[in-house]
Amino acid sequence: MNSRAQKTSRLFSFEFFPPKTPDGVESLRRTRTELARLEPEFFSVTFGAGGSTREGTFEMVKEIQQLGLNGAPHISCIGANRDSIREMLDDYLAIGVKRLVALRGDIPSGLVDRGEFRYANELVTFIREITGDAFHIEVAAYPEFHPEAPNPQIDLENFKRKVEAGADSAITQYFYTPDAYFRFTEECEAVGITIPIVPGIMPITNYRQLARFSDTCGADIPRWIRKRLEQYQDDLPSLRQFGVEVSTRLCATLLEHGAPGLHIYTLNRYRPAREIWTRLPL
Ligand code: FAD
């Protein structure tokens, strides 16, 4: 297989979040331009659970669509109801969106009304019910298990519910231990889950931020990485260099062993994502 065919037969994508300031919007436009040159399959845009970024997500996705690229909005159902989800889906259909990332969302602290949907599988069922096959639906997967899950087996069963509800593919929470992903995908196969499960990759650029995220979402930072990052804390060039090396090696191992693509959490920065990408044999 030549390198181009190798790239196009797998799914490569980048994730953004809707910026809060005009400067942030400008900076994201630059990031999008730089990363568009790498010809990813799609750019996804996150959604603040509870609807806090509804407008921002829509505007960012609309811009992506207007440039002739593929935007994939995240939609979370926490605090939502059937009418509000239907309205969002109609808005996305109207601008030509073909792919969604369907999530329950993190429960915002203090949220009293959790809305009409309890879990992502109910959202996927509803999207299929009212829009048929209009969208390719992505869901979230957790090789190191969702922090609320009572045990790995139950988490796997819950993941399977989303697939059976109509998900076409999945993107994982980030992780740094390839065996966690391989074990997870083997277990999925064993229970008859055959959709592509694309690893989510979080480039390492800031130790404190990464440690904070990881505590919340349950992603493990292995000790050998943590110790080095602690050592580099104020030496940003060394930290970034090490971070790119770790992520590139992780991506190469995953692809070598059959991962169906990569989804890079860019945090709206292009340099780490581009550097990892260009070091890979794509
Ligand atoms: P679910 O699949 O509903 O799972 C949530 C928990 O409930 C799990 O513990 C699961 O085991 C359990 N569960 C699931 N179904 C059932 C059921 N039927 N009965 C009983 N228990 C069940 N968050 C945002 O707020 N905005 C975003 O844009 C966003 N983007 C993300 C993108 C990716 C690729 C990933 C991996 C995560 C993203 N998140 C985002 C975080 C995500 O919303 C949280 O991890 C959230 O806590 C769970 O969402 P989910 O869709 O995986 O939920």
List the defining traits of the structure above.
TIM Barrel, single chain, 282 residues, 49% helix, 11 helices, alpha/beta, 8-stranded parallel β-barrel, disordered N terminus, binds flavin-adenine dinucleotide
Q: How many helices in DSSP terms? A: 11
Poorly predicted residue ranges:
1-7
The CATH architecture designation is Alpha-Beta Barrel
Helical content stands at 40-55%
Strand content: 15-25%
CATH C-level name? Alpha Beta
Number of domains: 1
Extended strand count? 8
Average pLDDT figure: 94
Shape descriptor = globular
Name the hetero compounds present.
flavin-adenine dinucleotide
Secondary-structure content class: alpha/beta
CATH topology: TIM Barrel
What is the N-to-C order of secondary-structure elements (H for helix, E for strand)? HEHEHEHEHEHEHEHHHEH
Characterize the main sheet. Answer: 8 strands, parallel, barrel
Quaternary assembly: single chain
Radius of gyration: 18 Å
Please give the order of strands in the largest beta sheet. Answer: 1-2-3-4-5-6-7-8
Distance between the termini: 11 Å
